[in-house]
Amino acid sequence: MKLITPGAVRRLRNLFLAIAAALAVCYVVMIRMPGKSFTGPLPPATEAQVALADRLRRDLEILAGDIGERNVFNPKKLDAARAFIEMSLVEAGYQVQRHAFTVRPHGGSDPADDVECFNVSVEIPGATLPGEIILIGAHYDSIYGSPGANDNGSGVVATLSLAQMFAGSAPKRTLRFVFFVNEEPPFFQVEGQMGSLVYARECRERRENITAMLTLETIGWYSDEPNSQHYPMGMGALYPSTGNFAAFVGNVGSRRLVRRIIESFREQAEFPSEGAALPGWIPGVGWSDHWSFWRAGYAGLMITDTAPFRYPHYHSADDTPDKVDCERIARLTEGMQRVIAALVDE
Q1: Could you report the per-residue pLDDT of 209-264, keeping only the tens digit for each?
Q2: 215, 217, 97, 89: which is closest to 163 by C-alpha?
Q3: For labeling, which of 44, 216, 247, 329 is most exposed (least CB within 10 Å)?
Q4: Nearest Cα to 144, choosing from 325, 286, 304, 319?
């Protein structure tokens, strides 16, 4: 029998200590977030929240009900969604900008197959710090075969409401709202075809100082049932098993922004929240338009209900407006309005 020498014991002990220290650092940097999540039953909805929920519901019925599936394979409906967004912004008093580019959805070499696509944006110039830009975004296309009520009609109608809330304000920093096209496959993370990636590249080329990018992505499904929430492998032990919270998710490079935003949200909103700043290769962490801004060198995060890790109708024909909880979206939107107000004026 071979004896373990004291030197081997010391090396093993040092190895375990190093592993434990590394795990502790990872937890502090990536998992532990400032503030405390709201717990317990939600308080009764206020009159303002009820009114906001009604507005969100009406907009969602237009976007995902009357218009329905909207993508370059249904270009008329994609254009109808763009027109609805633009009309809503103009009615709020904004001057709308379109950012055009073309894609060839079926491949091939015939330019006649090209479809012109548009990102849509509005902006409130900063009064004292106009060079610092806070960008709030959501993608308005839906995946082929789905009316996209939650993915991402929920994010679009919330972003529209936020833009309406800030209309006529005079923030210190520039506040920009952008509605992106072509987030869904087959364009996801494809150069020159994913709307937010085209847009983020142009921002970098103009040397714009986007200090925070927040995207609202699939925010409308919540459950108070135990075990209604799932996670990528290895993450379940760190977070709740009940899917009643909004998740604030960024990469490690955006950890300061993630911590700042969730701390502000927890101070100002009575709504459950969880946060993480994780490596971008973990499934789900980069699954929206914030990924494009990481690629362009900006800090960005996603606010989400975690989509396929919770929502049973994800990317299906059953993703219809009746599945979406507009009252909880209203609570989340109201909280985000306060977060954004602090972000642009602090």
Answers
A1: 999 999 999 999 999 999 999 999 888 889 999 999 999 999 999 999 999 999 99
A2: 89
A3: 44
A4: 319
Give the pair of three-digit tokens for residue 40.
Answer: 């317990």
Q: Taking Cα atoms as reference points, which of 117, 154, 124, 149 lies closest to residue 138?
A: 154
Residue where the block lists tokens 């317990």: 40
Distance CA 181, CA 70 (A): 10
Cβ atoms of 274 and 37 within 8 Å: the answer is yes
- Rounded Cα distance, 63 and 270, in Å: 28
User: Hey, which residues does 118 pair with through a beta bridge?
Assistant: 100
Q: How confident is the model over 175-215, as pLDDT tens digits?
A: 999 999 999 999 999 999 999 999 999 999 999 999 999 99
Q: What confidence tens digit (pLDDT) does each residue in 66-104 have?
A: 999 999 999 999 999 999 999 999 999 999 999 999 998
Query: How many Å is the Cα radius of gyration of the chain?
Result: 21
> Mean pLDDT over residues 162-178, rounded?
98
Euclidean distance between CA atoms 32 and 259, whole angstroms: 9
The C-alpha atoms of residue 100 and residue 1 are separated, in whole angstroms, by 74
* CA-based nearest residue to 173, from 125, 122, 121: 125
272 upstream amide cis, omega within 30 of 0:
no
